[in-house]
Hints:
Blueprint: E1 13-17, H1 22-38, H2 41-61, E2 68-72, E3 107-108, H3 111-124, H4 126-135, H5 141-148, H6 160-163, H7 168-192, H8 201-225, H9 227-232, H10 235-255, H11 261-275, H12 277-286, H13 292-302, H14 311-314, H15 319-343, H16 352-376, H17 378-383, H18 386-406, E4 409-410, H19 418-426
Antiparallel strand pairs: 1-2, 3-4
Helix pairs in contact: 1-2, 3-7, 3-18, 4-5, 4-18, 5-7, 8-10, 10-11, 10-12, 11-15, 13-15, 16-18
Amino acid sequence: MNPDSSASPEQASVEMPRPTVAPLVLSLGISLLLTGVATSSAFLCIGGVLFVVGLGMWIGQLLPGRGHCHEPLVEQALRPRPVIAAAGAVERIRHGMPGYRLRLPEKVHPLSAGIKGGLVGGLLMPLPALAYGVLSGHTVWYPINLLSGMALPGVDNLSVQELEQFRPALFALSAGIHVTVSLILGLLYGVLLPALPEIPKPFAWGALLMPVLWTAVSFAALGIVSPTARARVDWPWFIVSQFIFGMVAASVFLRCQQRGPITAGLLGGLAGGLLMPAPALLWGLLTRHGIWYPVNLLSAMVLRQAEQVTVAQLEQYHSDWLVAGIAMHAILSLSFGLAFGIVLPRLTAIPGALAWGGLVMPLLWMASSYGLMGVMNPVLQQRVDWPWFLVSQFLFGLVAAIVVRSEQVHIPPAGRGPDSFSEYVSG
Length: 427
């Protein structure tokens, strides 16, 4: 097909499948659904939401005009010219000559990179936990002794004072668990990160990094302004709400980019704000606090009454608190959507290895740890400070991803043995 400059857009372009993350979201939802059947209702609910979102996105791609896009062809002068056959012969590549059989890919990440990433990440990961032990008034031995409870029964029976003391047996067990888990996760990073695709910029920033940053800012601000309100917030569920907001906002932003980034951002913030309360309301039902508890808690923080109200008051319906909560939620959602539309076009893309290793995998590991500990040892689950736990996972994931991404080895082509590698690298 050689269309001229006057051809229609369909004739001067090639129809290509439109990129979509629907299969990834759908498969993640199915995985979490199956995990929730065996572990926790939290996984079941999150998996159900992701399943519905992924299935809806995939069905939307099948609608007329949705699943394909037109890629424009290059100018006529830049297109390849027809090959004119000429009599004669070319030299044949024979066995033993460089280039006889190429090996793809040309570069790979060795397994040693994963081991190094796990060791380096494992060295830095305990720093937030130890800092938490000091800043919270506990000792540095408190998080170390809690870690041993993952493998040693009876640790949950120890008092807080006993967990704050140095115990050689618990220290040795915690060190062994930490080294083993770090090496296993490092190997997983070395194997998985090179094979994972790039994450689109709106999802990498809006659905992963921004929710994490907003959670961190909210946690730190509430610790200063209203420690009582911070203690009443279930932070793992709070992170799930931010994650859903980011996923929905990023999806709408990608679909509405042709309307302009500001409009797309506001529409994304509006859509994300409509679905974001679902995890909070679900948490209120599962914990038997009622659906008004999270709404009233938000409005109490706005009205600066969180320090005075009781749990019983938070569980009751208050019309003025409902109006305040809805207004605050709408303002925050639209503000984040507006910031999304203004800032995102100016941001650079996050490399796939850093997005997966520094954001996605730590979130999955924290969700797995939280769900499994809730089934196996609910007492320890309550004693773990999960925001600090998440900081440790992010630090490990970011460091391990950087180490794995920075180390690559060349694959020499088949040819004349060791000499072909030096020629290949120098050439």
